[in-house]
Amino acid sequence: MSDVEAIGDALTGGVVARAVEPKAGESADGHTLEHNCLNCKAPLTGPFCNQCGQQAHVHRTLAAFFHDFAHGVLHFEGKIWRTLPLLAWKPGELTRRYIDGQRASFVSPVALFLFSVFLMFAVLSWTGNLNPTLGANPDIVSQQRVDEQKIAKLQQERASRVTQKLPTMDIDADIRDRQEELQMLRDLQQHGVTTAVLNKNSTIDTDVPFLKEVFLKAKENPDLLLYKLKSNSYKWSWALIPLSVPFLWLLFPFSRRFRLYDHVVFVTYSLAFMTLLIAAGGLVSAIGIPGVIVATVIIAPVHMYRQLRGAYSLGRWGALWRTTALVVIALFVLIAFVALMGVLGALD
Question: Which of 4, 79, 92, 136 has the fewest CB atoms within 10 Å around its CB?
């Protein structure tokens, strides 16, 4: 994920540069002693410059640097602690209050979404969930044994037919199918999902040159494809918002009460919660707690239902059918987004 690495390098460079920078005009704790604004040079008469609004005193310490970073990303000074509880338990209220103008109290949906995407990819990369190997998964091991036993029986039957000079084409086809499945299971266990899906025996039956080119490039190096898929998904994650908004608008067609802006705020806060949910699920899964996927599948539509009811003041039935439609829409948008990122990755 080159963009994340670049951000890390930039932060490291900034910290090092600040460490060796001369500290003229500073007190021992890093507090500057200026009498004029350091930004516009206007005389200072209070804690903020009355010309440009910059803070009058600047703390030049590492703690201040990381405080500014956190503030710039999420406005941590109280906003995040007011935003996250509402996002989790009363998402509809958060959405409606932000739309109605309570901006200073909460982290903006865009800032929260961008941070949550960064956090999700960081957690999934750290836990290995972006291309998991299944190791000694009992189901995988059991299926391997079944395939191995079936192949052995088929080979014995084939040898018997050869002895009797009978045709073996149907048995040969069965053996090939079982061997391909067995190889897929081994790749899945040892190398990860991408390599298993795009193993050397996989093919695509299409006369469309574009699709063939994409598939062949992906097949040549599945791990490179996964890296590009992650990189593109991170860089283009914001595209989920414009992809989703038109479908949400269709749930309130030609409504004069709710504008397109309302839908954008709804979608962005909803996506932020879902990415945070995936990040939390990745951490819980890494600890070894079972049932994470089931819990995530249950929590996601419940959150959509609560957000729809609160944000749009819907009744139970109105929120229920729209939630059902929204779940289908979300799956469609996600599949389309991943497919698009995969195509972009294969063509890079």
Answer: 136
